[in-house]
Structure formats: C-alpha cells, structure tokens
Amino acid sequence: MKKASGASALLVDAVVKGIQEVKGKDIVHLDLREVPNTVSDHFIICHGDSGPQVDAILRSVERFALEEVGEKPWHTEGLNNAEWVLLDFVDVVVHIFHRDKRSYYALEDLWADAASRTYENVA
Predict the structure, then answer these.
(1) 57 has a pLDDT exceeding 60
(2) CA 76 to each of CA 3, 5, 58, 95, 122: distance values in angstroms, whole numbers, following the listed order
(3) Cα(77)–Cα(57) distance, integer angstroms
(4) Higher-confidence residue: 98 or 1?
(5) Hey, is 79 helix, strand or coil?
(6) CB neighbours of 24 closer than 8 A, spacing ≥ 6?
(7) Domains of the chain
(8) What is the mean pLDDT of residues 87-96?
(9) How far apart are CA 104 and CA 123, in angstroms?
C-alpha cells in the first residue's frame, strides 16, 4: 500500500487511534488513490457490537481527529439509527457499522481493487 501523505496520513492515524480507544473491531484502511472514479482518497471501516458502541466510536474518532490534527468532519450521516455511521472528512471517509450491517453492505468487497491494511483490535 502506498503511504498516505501529509495531512491525510495524520488524519488516518488519528481515526484509527480513535477507533482503537473504544475497542472498535476489524479496522480496515482502504487506499483508494489508485482506483479510478472514487469519491475519496481513503476509507476507514470498522464495526461495533452495539448501538452504544457505534456511538462511542463516532465520538472517539471526532475527538481524536480534532485533538490530533485539528479536523472536524465536513458531513456526518446515520446518527439516528447507529447501524451505519459515516464521517466525511473529504479525503478520508470513516464508515462505522453495527456488526450485522457491515457484512450486509460488504464495502471491502465492493472496493476490493483498493490497497488495504488491517489494524489490530485492541484487547
């Protein structure tokens, strides 16, 4: 995988730390820069086991992004049902799923031609 550059790399790192802080599961970074016609350069995908955990991941990602790189999401979707929450930082888009919805939407399969990196779950 090509290394994310500059501000995007810092934001990707901050997002991953935010997810790990509240024990988000199966964290995957998809580097979309080499994939034609994408809406963003990076997708970060993870899931939580419950609605409250999905919400906790969202809040932690927002906090880490703001504290570590001074970034706020440009747009957020899915807050009402906490089954699939999307945080759009423009170059980096974070997808936080409830466990059941993640396998249903299978974003990793949809973007299978992107370079990917997985991160350890924090115990």
Answers:
(1) yes
(2) 26, 24, 10, 10, 25
(3) 14
(4) 98
(5) coil
(6) 46, 47, 48, 53, 57, 96, 121
(7) 6-118 (3.30.460.10)
(8) 96
(9) 25
- Could you tell me the CA-to-CA distances from 28 to 48, 80, 116, 117 in Å, in that order? 13, 24, 7, 6
Is the distance from CB of 115 to CB of 1 less than 8 angstroms? Answer: yes
Residue with tokens 């509240």: 22
Tokens of 106: 């299978």
Residue 113 in 3-state DSSP?
Answer: coil
Q: Which two tokens stand for residue 93?
A: 């888009």
Tell me the whole-structure pTM to 2 decimals. Answer: 0.91
Residue 12: name the closest of 84, 103, 120, 117 by CA: 117
Locate tokens 């810092």: which residue? 10
- Residues of the chain with pLDDT > 90, as a percent, come to 76
